[in-house]
Design goal:
8-stranded mixed sheet; globular; 5-stranded mixed sheet
């Protein structure tokens, strides 16, 4: 046993200097949630822990299907469009079914909102939670082998409610948990329950999400931007000037580096780890923005703020917006605090000049 009691050490067969340490006191997602519950919610019933167990089952099931998608012909169009007009991939449909069945089986969810469903789903039973999700975000990249992910957020059912759309048409400040799972070289779950951000990696041999990135913090600033510059001509003046200044700074300063994958989960995972700014602004082509508030903007904004960053439309904090429809969209800038504040200052500059 090593000195801190977290593992044991073995010596190679040759008896040489090679030491292989194996940790035996690992922190699984379930263990982590139970510990957090004891620390922050001593009167908890355990319902939320059971909900998170159902969520992680859905992530594991989706990850399994993505890894074998090409082999079993799950890549390609399913011949339909979803509630927001996007062509549905076969995996979109399967991911949606996995999520619906997992949330129903948990017995703890009353209302479910999915990008793939036109209306809310209200389950039978006395569930206390509402879950909003994009089961497989970025699925248009699947054919190219690009990382995709699941984005989710959780609300508590309003007091006295029997389950309805009003339970989810609430500002992001009322979410009690949010996160995403990125399916790439490994399955990475990033989660907040309102007490910081923690990252977990799926150990496929154990079948468990293991805590690998505790207490994640986004750097205060970083000279990296992530945006689809193909839309530059459609942007408003503040956005155009902001990105122009990043690429063509004052003499003596270095321009920012551009990193854009085109999958929100992958772009946000990199931004959260390394810092910088991710943006999908509203523009003349998509006046209300492209990304959905409830199950894309809110969860990511919640995560980023909990990690020490900011999220804004340019003129309003993302989490303060009250959606009018479950599939409402919004423009968004989010990431490192000092980078996002530059966007806010740019919009203020144009407000003053107007």
């Amino acid at each position: 046993m090593n000195g801190n009691g977290t593992g044991f050490t073995t010596t190679g067969a040759g008896g040489g200097d090679s030491l292989n340490e194996i940790k035996t006191d690992i922190i699984t997602l379930t263990r982590f949630i139970l510990t957090e519950q004891g620390r922050y919610a001593t009167q908890a019933t355990g319902d939320f822990t059971l909900l998170l167990n159902s969520l992680q089952f859905a992530f594991k099931f989706i990850s399994h299907n993505i890894r074998r998608a090409t082999l079993v012909n799950l890549i390609g169009l399913a011949g339909a469009t979803n509630s927001t007009g996007d062509d549905q991939k076969k995996l979109d449909v399967i991911g949606d079914e996995i999520f619906i069945n997992a949330m129903r089986a948990s017995g703890k969810v009353k209302v479910l909102v999915s990008e793939e469903q036109e209306e809310i789903i209200v389950f039978e039973g006395d569930g206390k939670y509402c879950v909003v999700c994009d089961p497989i975000d970025g699925s248009s990249n699947l054919d190219a082998g690009v990382s995709v992910g699941t984005i989710f957020g959780v609300y508590k059912l309003q007091p006295g409610s029997t389950g309805g759309v009003s339970d989810v048409l609430r500002p992001g400040t009322e979410m009690i948990a949010a996160g995403y799972t990125m399916y790439g070289a490994s399955a990475n779950l990033v989660l907040t329950t309102g007490n910081g951000v923690n990252g977990f990696t799926l150990d496929t041999a154990l079948g468990e999400f293991i805590l690998t990135h505790p207490d994640m913090k986004i750097p205060k600033k970083r000279s990296i931007y992530s945006v689809n510059e193909g839309n530059t001509v459609y942007w408003d003046k503040p956005t155009q000037e902001y990105f122009h200044d990043l690429k063509y700074p004052s003499e003596g300063l270095k321009p920012y580096s551009s990193r854009y994958i085109g999958s929100m989960v992958a772009d946000m995972h990199r931004t959260l780890l390394y810092g910088g700014i991710f943006a999908y602004p509203s523009d003349s082509k998509s006046k209300n923005g492209k990304l959905r508030l409830l199950y894309e903007c809110f969860p990511m904004a919640f995560l980023v703020e909990q990690a020490g960053g900011l999220a804004t439309t340019g003129t309003q904090r993302i989490l303060d917006i009250v959606p009018k429809h479950i599939h409402d969209r919004s423009g968004i800038f989010l990431g490192s605090e000092k980078e996002v504040l530059k966007v806010v200052d740019m919009y203020k500059k144009y407000e003053i000049s107007a």
